[in-house]
C-alpha cells in the first residue's frame, strides 16, 4: 500500500563511504564537520541551529547525522534524521548555496531515505515552508505528500509549515 521510494542506483549504499559520480562522498557527520555544517545551516535557515546542538546530537541514540563532502573532505551538504521505532523525521537537510541546483539535494535525500529504511523506518515526516518551492519539488520526487499544516510555524518571516509524509517500502521484502 505504501509508496516505494526509488533513488538513483548511485545513491544505494551504506552511510560510510558512499561515493557519487562527481567524487562526492556521503558519510556520518564528525565533530570536525560541525563548523561547516553550522555555516550551511546559517545560509539555509532563518532560525539556524547552533554548534552545540549538533555536537549534542553526535552521541544521541536514534539520530542519523549525515554529510556530503567533496574530494578534499569539505562539507557541501548535510542532513539530520530522527529515527524512533518505525517513524522517522527529517529534521534538517541543506546544501551549500554554491552547490545548489545540481542534483546534490536529490542524492542526499535519497541516501537519507535508504538509511531510514535500513533502520526499519516505515514513514518519514518533515516540515517545510509553504513557500519553499524548490524543496517541495524535491520532496514530491520522493512521493512525499502533504498530511497537515502548522499555522505560523516559522518566524523571519512568519509562515505556515506544511507537514509532509513519505511511506517507505521495506528492504526486507
Could you describe the 3D structure shown?
The protein has 173 residues and is an alpha+beta fold. The protein has a domain at 9-122: Aminopeptidase (3-Layer(aba) Sandwich), CATH 3.40.630.30. It has helices spanning 34-44, 51-57, 104-118, 133-141, and strands at 18-19, 25-28, 63-69, 75-84, 87-95, 123-129, 145-154, 159-167. The protein has an 8-stranded mixed sheet with strand order 1-2-3-4-5-6-8-7, sandwiched between helices. A hairpin with a 5-residue loop joins strand 3 and strand 4 (75-84). It starts with 17 loop residues before the first strand and ends in a 6-residue tail after the last strand.
Which band does the percent of strand residues land in?
25-35%
Level of helix content? 10-25%
Give the oligomer, counting copies of the same chain as homo and different chains as hetero.
single chain
Mean pLDDT across residues: 87
Low-confidence stretches: 1-19
> What is the number of E strands?
8
| Estimated structural class | alpha+beta
Whole-angstrom Rg:
15 Å
Note the gap between the termini.
Answer: 13 Å
What is the CATH first-level class name of one domain? Alpha Beta
Shape: globular
> What is the succession of H and E elements?
EEHHEEEHEHEE
Largest sheet: 8 strands, mixed
The CATH topology of one domain is Aminopeptidase
Neighbour order of strands in the largest sheet: 1-2-3-4-5-6-8-7
- Tell me the number of helical segments per DSSP (H or I, 4 or more residues long): 4
| CATH homologous superfamily identity of one domain | Gcn5-related N-acetyltransferase (GNAT)
CATH structural architecture of one domain:
3-Layer(aba) Sandwich
Amino acid at each position: 500500500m505504501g509508496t516505494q521510494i526509488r533513488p538513483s542506483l548511485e545513491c544505494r549504499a551504506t552511510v560510510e563511504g558512499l561515493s557519487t559520480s562527481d567524487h562526492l562522498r556521503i558519510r556520518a557527520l564528525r565533530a570536525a564537520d560541525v563548523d561547516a555544517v553550522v555555516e550551511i545551516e546559517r545560509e539555509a535557515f532563518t532560525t539556524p541551529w547552533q554548534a552545540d546542538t549538533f555536537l549534542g546530537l553526535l552521541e544521541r541514540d536514534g539520530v542519523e547525522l549525515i554529510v556530503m563532502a567533496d574530494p578534499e573532505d569539505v562539507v557541501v551538504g548535510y542532513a539530520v534524521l530522527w529515527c524512533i521505532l518505525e517513524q522517522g523525521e527529517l529534521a534538517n537537510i541543506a546544501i551549500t548555496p554554491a552547490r545548489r541546483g545540481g542534483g546534490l539535494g536529490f542524492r542526499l535525500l535519497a541516501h537519507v531515505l535508504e538509511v531510514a529504511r535500513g533502520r526499519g523506518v516505515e514513514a518519514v515526516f518533515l516540515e517545510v515552508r509553504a513557500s519553499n518551492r524548490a524543496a517541495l519539488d524535491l520532496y514530491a520526487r520522493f512521493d512525499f505528500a502533504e498530511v497537515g499544516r502548522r499555522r505560523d510555524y516559522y518566524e523571519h518571516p512568519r509562515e505556515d509549515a506544511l507537514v509532509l509524509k513519505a511511506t517507505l517500502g521495506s528492504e526486507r521484502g
